[in-house]
Amino acid sequence: MKPTVFIDGAAGTTGLEIWERLADRSDIALIELPDAERKTARARREALNDASLAILCLPDAAAREAVAMVENPAVRIIDASTAHRTAPDWVFGLPELEPGQRERIAAAKRVSNPGCYSTGFVALIRPLVRAGIVPADLPLTANAVSGYSGGGKAMIEEFEDGASPRYVETVVRIYALTLAHKHVPEMQKHAGLAHPPLFAPSVGRFFRGMIVEVPLQLWALPGRPTVAVLHTALTEAYRREPLVEVARLEEGIVTQTLDAELLKLSNGMKLFVFGNDKTQQARLVAVLDNLGKGAAGAAVQNLNLMLGLPETTGLL
After folding, report:
1. pLDDT of residue 179
2. What is the block-wise mean pLDDT of the chain (316 residues), using blocks of 10 residues?
3. SS3 track for 10-34
């Protein structure tokens, strides 16, 4: 019998993206609720408890409520909200995080899908902390820009609906100016840092795609590592990863500009190491699609692992 999958919140931006990746697959069966019932507690509770695996694409409070609705101990959950990303009894759904993380995800009943920004940040920093190149207590800054789809339906309306009172003509805007972005706790925890990074996100007038950047003063690191040392550590960490590519060091040398839409419509992520050994400075950069590897693609990757299916099914 095919495993059954229910997407709670399938009408939202991330939910629709996940649905598109799963709709034509023959190895699973999707549970679909009529429009009139998809927000009713009774129908949702029934679907959640009938599913082999439920994917929650809901606001944080609603995600917690959905988890509480699940009474069937056989049901496994992937939560795409922020609600459980630092919870001790949930597995962080970034298979590339650590050796053995895939096995932990595959065996888990509860998996929290990473945030898009934290996916890029953790991918860049965790291997360097693990290798002792970046001290866990180093003050770190992360700069990022995302397409406006990252803000969901409300932000899409702001940027696309000229008739809406919410419409803006902004090209680029910075936000989270109180330094309390909801991704910061997971960025700190899963990168292995002693202190929260200073996170400076922005949104641009493009639909999907993102860049996450971490600048490093190499002279301030133990042993003053070269650019090549950083690159080698990242290359070794992701050498066998099907969805994460580390650009060759030569590519980092010749690249003059980098487009946030480079990997739009992709489920992968590309990491770059730019640097100058004379100034002893480096810029670590992750490029990904905020709706791909940053959301829906990650959820499907985790689903595949949890259901014992080939990890990249429907993603390459």
Report:
1. 96
2. 96 96 96 90 96 98 97 98 97 97 98 98 98 98 98 94 92 96 98 98 98 98 97 97 97 93 97 97 98 98 98 92
3. CCCHHHHHHHHHHCCCCCCEEECCC
Count, residues in the chain: 316
Which tokens in the block code for residue 86?
């630092």
User: Where do we find the tokens 């999958």?
Assistant: 5
Q: Catalytic positions, please?
A: 116
CA distance 106 to 70: 20
d(CA 232, CA 39): 49
- 69: phi then psi, degrees, rounded to nearest 5: -75, -20
Domains belonging to the chain, first-starting first, are: 4-113+295-306 (3.40.50.720), 116-290 (3.30.360.10)
What's the pTM value of the predicted model, to 2 decimals? 0.96
- CA 105 – CA 126 distance, rounded (Å): 18
Q: Is 271 helix (H, G, I), strand (E, B) or coil?
A: strand
Q: Which ranges of the chain would DSSP assign to H, the alpha helix?
A: 13-22, 41-50, 60-69, 101-107, 116-130, 152-160, 184-191, 227-237, 249-254, 297-306
The span from the CA of 47 to the CA of 68, in Å, is 13
